[in-house]
Amino acid sequence: MIPLKSKAEIALMREAGRIVARVHQALRDMIKPGITTAQLNARADEIIRAHGATPTFLGYPHTGKNDFPYSVCISVNEVIVHGFPSGRWLEPGDIIAVDVGATYRGWVGDSAWTYPVGQIDNEAERLLSATEGALWAGIAQAHVGNRVSDISRAIEQYVNQRGFTVVREYTGHGVGRKMHEEPQVLNYVPRGARRSPEIKVGMTFALEPMVNIGTWRTRTLSDGWTVVTADGKRSAHFEHTIAIMENGPEILTVL
Ligand code: MG
Ligand code: MG
To answer: Which bound ligand lies closest to the C-alpha atom of 174?
Structure first.
């Protein structure tokens, strides 16, 4: 069952999304060589709470593992997703993915963005542009008349045409009262897949391509959370929460 949201519920999700966007706006300005990812986490937590929301990721449960211990996920270079903020200083040339979730009056906003630290090399530039472009290509397909797999296909093709690979073990998702709801929104179309659900007005999705320079395969570190590329090459992640409206997708995680 894919929950459909009413206009009033989407209005609340818009508020949650705006808080997430405020965090990104603030962190984007702080990200430079010499700052630690723990400082970014602390600032994000402060902004989320100042707006009467709670950080959705903090204490997020994980079957058989510890709950997620931080307010945001910060994934640097070869880390794909679910990285822990730490005392590590950012260095020029790093790429840093910040994933932010905020719960406001029971509704979740979820958005990730990958930022360059100082000057980055050409390959990293192309990776960021391919991953962000794949997100927009997916959003463009998120409308009534299409199926969820049309989003998946657009993302996969955009990435493959640029010579990068799409991560398969982690996916986009429905979002609303919970961070992860039906349906799963894959970033690729598996061979022989069953027909995916039709997209309907009132559905809300978090679309989130995770794109690698090398292999799509991943590995999880012993902390139980941090997901890295199997070959140690770099990865990027862009995500928006969107709502399906009569006239097309509306991005909720914006100011
Ligand atoms: Mg996210
Ligand atoms: Mg998400």
So the answer is: 2
